[in-house]
Specification:
The complex is a heterodimer of chains A (113) and B (113). In chain A, 0% of the residues lie in helices and 50% in strands. Chain A has 113 residues and is an all-beta fold. Chain A is globular. In chain B, the strands form two sheets. In chain B, strands 1-9-8-3-4 form a five-stranded mixed sheet, with no helix packed on it. Chain B has a four-stranded antiparallel sheet with strand order 2-7-6-5, with no helix packed on it. The chains are: A mainly beta (113), B mainly beta (113).
């Protein structure tokens, strides 16, 4: 059973471009969480999704950021018009149920130049 | 906001037990104590969780005080690969919650050769 897969592992974007980060949860997991970790800082919750539904987006910036978890395929975190401050590691986690432990992927490191 | 307090750093000798404390004096009856660790810049790794009974798995033991206001994570025989930031997290377990994990600053554990 493969773990949580995130791709790409590293992503470089110029200011103003769009970044798409993908997260494939573990098999049988229908709950996905996204976190952001700025350099030398802690992990900050962004959004929690179940299949086709956003449950909690209290940590998402109000503009430029969006997330989805379609019925088929991976969860996508989309950042439009990236700025240098978006440079960070973005981690996703998945769990089979709401009250289960969550398992993290290895992250996508976004660098905005 | 994190509901736990941990020492910022600790160290222990390789082969000895590492005892990582955590205070969670405002924990409520329906909240679990979770422990994760993050090795260098990798994705957080689930270690163990518990409600009120002590728990043990292949990685660690979790000792929760009777009043549940504090807990200790024990790595029985620390190795150099256990050097990481350890996060103690209280997580709600009620149906109207998003069950998100809120990471604090954690304890940076250094295992010395």
């Amino acid at each position: 059973n493969a773990g949580v897969m995130q791709n790409p592992r590293h992503l470089v974007r110029r200011r103003g471009q769009e970044a798409r980060l993908r997260c494939s949860p573990m098999k049988g997991h229908s709950h996905v969480y996204w976190y952001r970790q700025l350099p030398e800082e802690g992990l900050k919750f962004m959004v929690y999704l179940q299949k086709e539904n956003i449950i909690d987006e209290s940590g998402m910036p109000k503009e430029r950021f969006s997330a989805e978890f379609p019925k088929e395929g991976p969860s996508i975190l989309r950042i439009q018009q990236v700025v240098r401050g978006d440079s960070a590691a973005y981690f996703c986690a998945s769990s089979p149920q709401q009250m289960s432990e969550a398992f993290f992927g290895q992250g996508t490191r976004l660098t905005v130049v | 906001d994190a509901k736990t307090t941990q020492p910022p750093s600790m160290d222990c000798a390789e082969g000895r037990a590492a005892n990582l404390p955590c205070n969670h004096s405002t924990i409520s009856g329906n909240e679990y104590v979770y422990w994760y660790r993050q090795i260098h810049s990798q994705g957080p790794q689930y270690i163990i969780h518990g409600l009120k009974n002590n728990e043990t798995n292949e990685m660690a033991s979790l000792i929760i005080t009777e009043d549940r206001k504090s807990s200790t994570l024990i790595l029985p025989h620390a190795t150099l690969r256990d050097t990481a930031v350890y996060y103690c997290i209280v997580r709600p377990n009620v149906m109207d919650s998003s069950y998100k994990l809120i990471f604090g600053s954690g304890t940076r554990l250094l295992v010395r050769p």
